[in-house]
Amino acid sequence: MLGALPTPAQRTPPPRRAARVCMNGHLLAAEEDPGLARGAATNRADPLAVRTTDVRCPACGTGTILACPGCGYPIPGATPTLAFDVPHFCIVCGEYYPWTFRGEFYATLAEILDESPRLDRAALRAALGTLERQREGLAESSETRGLVETFRSLGGSDWDLAAQILQVVLTPEQRASLDLRAAFAH
Fold it and tell me: pLDDT tens for residues 100-144?
């Protein structure tokens, strides 16, 4: 009987340096030892729900990761010759990193707000500002509640879609404190 074949992440040599990035995409370190990523949690089915390290982001308080939630390959860090940007996807398995998924979801929420005829300019500007603070993990709970109420006031399919996305991007604590039942749930 043959042993299990190594995964692509196991076959690919690790990068010289690994990056530590929070779930919202804030870079904490770009020159970590890639060995720190060994045995990192993976959750290919739901990369936004991957278990994070105990190191918290000083900017937003969320957990951090050192490896791809899809395959466990270390997030490549800085090189001496190139400027470093937080990557959007894993170079081994191609999965988007959690901050990329969140970015796409938040872009859709911004489109819902921007295209709504129900919001005047001031309300739109305020809602988009709060949405950006929420994406960055900086919104206060009262701001998040107000944002949810803004989406709820749009009604119909706009609220249905926004409620579905908010169920994914908000933390479990935020979801527990908010009523995100959309019209489709009634």
Answer: 989 999 999 999 999 999 999 999 999 999 999 999 989 999 999
Of 168, 134, 172, nearest to 150 by C-alpha is 134
**What are the structure tokens assigned to 128, written together?**
């988009």
- Give the separation between CA 44 and CA 71, rounded to whole angstroms: 7
Tokens representing residue 2 in the block:
């043959």
22 backbone dihedrals φ, ψ, rounded to 5°: -80, 165
Confidence band for 186, pLDDT divided at 50, 70 and 90: very low
Closest CA to 19 of 6, 9, 29: 29
* Three-state DSSP state, 165: helix
Separation between Cα atoms, residue 166 and residue 169, nearest integer Å: 5
pTM of the shown model: 0.82
Q: How many CB atoms lie within 10 A of CB 81?
A: 5
